[in-house]
Design brief:
Ubiquitin-like (UB roll); 6 domains; alpha+beta
Length: 713
């Protein structure tokens, strides 16, 4: 009220007071009356909104719609005005329009309640999705319509629309698609690229959408001069090597930001954790070049005050601290911090490992490193079930403590069974027998194996072994291990044993005591156990029967795997693998034991051929294995469906065979090609292989399908 007691008023002042009250929006009617010198104001208040009820909405939940109304200040308790109905209808239509539903109908009704309140009933007919009928791009000369449309998640209506929602219009998706097109041009030299306008037209029945995008590509720019300024605390050649790599290239915003991050990482690896690197592009329209200025502010060299561990409720701190490559009190190195996190992940004790660096309050050269871990199951016990070609179904169980009593030591007792093999193992390993990471362990093994069950000649072996193992780390990825032990082997020939097996038994006997040594070198930088997308692995092993053994022979084997992504998102991957093996006798032994031979064919070898079917044949044409193994595989891995990381598909080519000593020949190699699909289940990948031999002979056993569950290739 712009009036106070004691004021003198006229008609103009009273009219102003009435307008002021109406302006509040609280009243439907106002009248002013006079009782001598008393001003009497008669008011009729607008009703308050007691409730807003929604019905008919299925696509968008009630809570989400109510939240949208609240954000527009259309809430219970507010004063109701007739314009409120239009506001509610407009806001709800806006929510549905954002999802591409332009045919939505919103009707509101007002129900009068006691005490001057109203209830609003909102009925929604969600209609149908508005389908994109056409997307036009105007102004593109360097890239075709199809190339630019492939960058978009939105698609014009077509056959694939039956299986996806790509043809359903969404304002948010269009905004993201426009940014993808912008990034495409900015990463390919079009610095002056601009989206001039975007028109979205809707058909009269509101079921069809037509999108027109007008662009201006601009000329292609290349990188001109590249300069460094500011404080460079490391050797300038190191920084210049990183930044000059893009000089003369077509300008790319993505490449520019990557180089800036690489320089920042270089500084962080050398102790300047708070360094800032700002790449500044200077556009030269005259010669279509972009000069780059990398402004560096390194700050002070940073030191680590403390390293803290959180979440390790079972594992003692010392087990984590011995994996650290970053030391307390030392210069902070992001490379060492990353390596420390990776080593904790590889322990297998934790389901997740995260690391954060926190500046120390009151200083500009100190930080704390915080490792947050979540204790995972360390396989207290497990059961495995699976199936693989050649052996059929297999099962097993184990009591397995990878982190025994939180000490980091490993204890395992296991058994496994398949059609061909019964095996029992017990092992104990201390991975840090010394502070330098030398490991020490012991293992006891008992195995019964019937080779006739895996399509090999008719014989069986019983093995009992005791071994002592040592391991020595050469780097974060490489390890050298030694195993010394004794093994008792009993050979039993089947009723249909071949002449070759009988000749071996006659020459060497059927019971063998073996003193053995095994040396193994492993170097593994693969980024995942089951489905790697990047990295390589080497595994070189040498088995040697020591003096005093009944059989004198050795085995050497090399395995190699390599993965490299073919695109930035690692959806497409190239892979290569190879196996080489050689075995021979020495001393008094003249015949290689049949259980020391190599076999090839089937899953994990040369797919498209029968399991263990390749190579030399015995007198009854059954596989007898060979002393030389050579196989190789090349694979192209690609996604089958989006957002399904547990499924891996590939096309492959396999080559290989096994040979007798001195019998290797390139023209005897077998080859196959095919398609493989793997699905990562809780017991490992379920893999289906469809294969076709490319090079084979009439005596070969071929098969077009392989199925395995629970084992990876």
């Amino acid at each position: 009220m712009p009036l106070q007691v004691g004021d003198e008023v006229d008609q103009r002042a009273l009219a102003a007071a009435t307008r002021s009250l109406f302006k509040s929006g609280y009243f439907e009617d106002i009248s002013l009356q006079r009782d001598d010198s008393v001003l009497v104001i008669k008011l009729k208040e607008r009703p308050a909104i007691a409730s807003i009820s929604l019905s008919g909405n299925k696509i968008i939940g009630t809570e989400q719609l109510q939240g949208a109304l609240k954000s527009a200040k259309l809430i219970e308790g507010e004063i109701f005005q007739q314009s409120t109905l239009a506001q509610i209808e407009l806001e709800l239509e806006r929510q549905y329009n954002a999802m591409g539903r332009y045919s939505v109908l919103v009707e509101t009704r007002v129900q009068e309640l006691e005490e001057n309140r109203v209830g609003l009933e909102v009925e929604i007919n969600e209609g149908v999705n508005s389908i994109i009928s056409q997307i036009n791009i105007i102004g593109n000369n360097q890239y075709s319509d199809s190339q630019l449309l492939d960058l978009m998640s939105l698609r014009a209506d077509g056959f694939w629309s039956l299986f996806s929602k790509s043809s359903q219009y969404s304002r948010e998706k269009l905004t993201a698609d426009l940014e993808n097109i912008r990034s495409h041009y900015l990463d390919r030299g079009h610095v002056l690229f601009n989206i001039e306008s975007t028109q979205v037209a809707i058909a009269a029945d509101k079921t069809q959408v037509f999108i027109t995008i007008n662009i201006n590509e601009g000329p292609e720019f290349r990188v001109g001069e590249v300069n460094i300024s500011g404080d460079v605390p490391v050797a300038e050649e190191q920084v210049r090597k990183l930044v000059s790599a893009i000089q003369g290239n077509v300008f790319s915003r993505y490449e520019l930001m990557n180089v800036g991050q690489e320089v920042k990482q270089l500084l962080g690896d050398n102790g300047f954790a708070f360094a800032e690197v700002q790449p500044v592009p200077l556009v030269n329209n005259e010669d279509s070049t972009v000069d780059l200025q990398f402004l560096i502010r390194s700050g002070k060299r940073t030191y680590v005050r403390r390293i803290n561990f959180n979440g390790n409720t079972r594992t003692v701190d010392d087990v984590l601290r011995r994996e650290m490559r970053q030391m307390e009190g030392g210069v902070a190195s992001f490379a060492d911090i990353r390596a420390s996190r990776l080593r904790l992940q590889r322990l297998g004790y934790f389901s997740s490992v995260n690391v954060n660096t926190k500046p120390v309050a009151g200083t500009d050269d100190m930080l704390d490193v915080e490792f947050d871990v979540v204790e995972g199951l360390t396989a207290d016990w497990s059961i495995m079930l699976g199936y693989t070609d050649g052996e059929g179904a297999f099962w097993g169980g184990s009591i397995n403590q990878n982190n025994f009593l939180g000490t980091g030591n490993k204890l395992e007792a296991s058994l496994s069974s398949s059609a061909s093999t019964q095996e029992y193992n017990f092992s104990y390993l201390n991975p840090y027998y010394t502070v330098n990471g030398v490991s020490l362990g012991v293992d006891v093994t008992y195995q019964q194996r019937d080779y006739s069950e895996i399509d090999v000649s008719s014989y069986a072996t019983d093995r009992v072994g005791l071994g002592m193992q040592f391991g020595y780390p050469l780097s974060d990825n490489a390890n050298l291990s030694f195993n010394l032990g004794y093994e008792q082997i009993d050979l039993t020939l089947g009723s249909s044993a071949t002449k070759e097996l009988k000749d071996f038994e006659k020459a060497e006997g059927s019971e063998f005591g073996q003193y053995k040594a095994n040396i193994s070198y492993k170097d593994n930088s693969l980024n995942d156990f089951w489905y790697p997308t990047e990295g390589r692995s080497h595994n070189l092993s040498l088995f040697l029967a020591l003096p005093g053994s009944d059989l004198n022979y050795y085995q050497a084997k090399y395995n190699y795997r390599y993965f490299t992504p073919l695109d930035n998102s690692a959806n497409y991957i190239a892979s290569f693998g190879a196996q080489l093996g050689y075995t021979d006798t020495f001393g008094s032994s003249t015949l290689t034991p049949p259980f020391a031979n190599y076999y090839a064919g089937g899953f994990g070898s040369v797919r498209g051929f029968g399991h263990n079917s390749l190579g030399p044949k015995a007198s009854d044409d059954s596989p007898m294995g060979g002393q030389i193994l050579t196989t190789a595989t090349g694979e192209w891995i690609f996604p089958l469906l989006d957002d399904m990381p547990s499924v891996r598909t590939m096309l492959f080519v396999d080559v290989g065979n096994v040979f007798e000593q001195g019998g290797f020949a390139v023209d005897k190699l077998r080859a196959s090609t095919g398609f493989s699909l793997a699905w990562l289940t809780p017991v490992g990948p379920l893999t289906l292989v469809m294969a076709q031999p490319l090079v084979s002979e009439s005596i070969d056993s071929t098969t077009s399908t392989h199925i395995t569950l629970g084992r990876s290739y």
